[in-house]
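BUG: 3D viewer hangs when loading the predicted structure for this chain

Environment: internal workstation, default settings.
Expected: structure renders.
Actual: progress bar stalls at 90%.

Input used:
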Amino acid sequence: MLVNMNDILLPAKENGYGVGFFNAVNVEMARAIIETAEELCAPVMVGTAEVLLPITGRERVAEMVRICHAMGVTVEGELGHVGDNAGAGKLENPSDYFTDPDTAMDFERIQVISEKQTSR
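Structure tokens produced before the viewer hung:
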């Protein structure tokens, strides 16, 4: 069952338990995560990396977010660089860990446009 993250995170906080977040790199892995959660009656969050999705461009990502929101599904994402596996956490420029403000403003602009289109 798909639910809003607040529906699983707020009860977890109130009752002192954690909710696992699992990255799925393919459909089989996502199914295994969901089936196991169902067997255990345990909430989980399933995610993936944008490099694994055939979606490119901010407009297409914004469209995917709009579709998810229309179905009541919350979406979480990162803008810019996330982590540094290859460099073991030692980027040449530490500010590369931070989201570029121009990228964030551009994403916000696209979200506002998408939300206006949804409300029509």
